[in-house]
Amino acid sequence: MTDVIRTERDGFIATVILNRPEKLNAMTRPMWRGLGEALNTLSDDDDIRCIILRGAGGKAFSPGNDISEFEDVRSTPAQAKDYGDDLYHGLDGVKQCRHPTVALIEGICVGGGLEVAALCDFRICGKSSRFGVPIKRLGLVMAYPEVSGLRDLVGDAITKEILLEGRVFGAEEAKDKGLVTRIVEDREVEKEAFETARRISEGAPLVARWHKKFIKRLNDPRPLSTTEVDEAYKCYDTEDFDIGYKSFLSKTQPQFKGR
Q1: How far is CA 127 from each of CA 35, 54, 106, 115, 171, rounded to the nearest angstrom?
Q2: What domains are defined for the chain?
Q3: What span, in angstroms and rounded, lies between the C-alpha atoms of 134 and 67?
Q4: DSSP codes of every residue in 19-50
Q5: What DSSP string describes 73-110?
Q6: What are the backbone dihedrals phi and psi of residue 92, each rounded to the nearest 5 degrees, phi first?
Q7: Which helix (H) or strand (E) holds 122?
């Protein structure tokens, strides 16, 4: 895995870091590939209960793709398609992750950075954070796999507003649009994101994974099968259910096993 994507771990919580602070964590092709590899690896790890995504340096989540890269690796349709394979691999890693994900957003979160954050389950930012997708100025299209995450989050109308106007806007407007889960003081973003991850990790991990799966499936218009409906009752066969309800009755803190 490229060193511009760094992974750290503290107990049940993993942190994936976009690690180009000298460029405000602008995304490159190796970073997109590394992001997908990191998320896929963590998704397969049953000991993980929550993943935080953040930019290095404390000044930006990410301003999107590094435009200086375009001339050499993304200046023709053929090049763009090849580049897109790695970009979509990164986005798909976030989208398909089994574990809850929290975007820790400090500073700018624009373009491809916003695409990554939009696919997380939670987005926590500071009051001075900025958002937008100003690619109209580049004559650049956001392709179908990129648009889908933003559209799924905020709907058609807001997605068109963001793409067609191309404005960069503040945290309060982002929250009004449904882009942001929670706004805190800039100095509190890291603390709030990690406390959120801790609260998530204290719950039964199998339940969190099931809830993510069920919500995603409900976006599919096909009728639920009997097997799918019955999956909701499998939790009663888990060790965690036994731990959970007994802890509730005894008024003690449950220590879930993920089994």
Answers
A1: 26, 16, 9, 20, 6
A2: 5-201 (3.90.226.10), 205-250 (no CATH)
A3: 13
A4: --GGGTT-B-HHHHHHHHHHHHHHHT-TT--E
A5: HSSSHHHHHHHHHHHHHHHHHHHT-SS-EEEEE-SEEE
A6: -65, -30
A7: strand 122-126
Please name the residues in contact with 220: beta carbons below 8 A apart, sequence gap of 6 or more: none
Give this prediction's pTM.
Answer: 0.93
- List per-residue pLDDT tens for the chain, 259 residues long: 458 999 999 999 999 999 999 999 999 999 999 999 999 999 999 999 999 999 999 999 999 988 888 777 777 888 878 888 899 999 999 999 999 999 999 999 999 999 999 999 999 999 999 999 999 998 888 999 899 999 999 999 999 999 999 999 999 999 999 999 999 999 999 999 999 999 999 988 999 999 999 999 998 899 999 998 998 999 889 988 888 888 888 888 888 887 8
Facing residues of 123 across strands? 103
Q: Which of 157, 190, 247, 149 is nearest to 59 (CA)?
A: 190
Token pair in block for residue 205 = 């991990």
Give the dihedral sign, CA 63/67/72/74: positive
Phi, psi of 149 (to 5 degrees): -65, -45
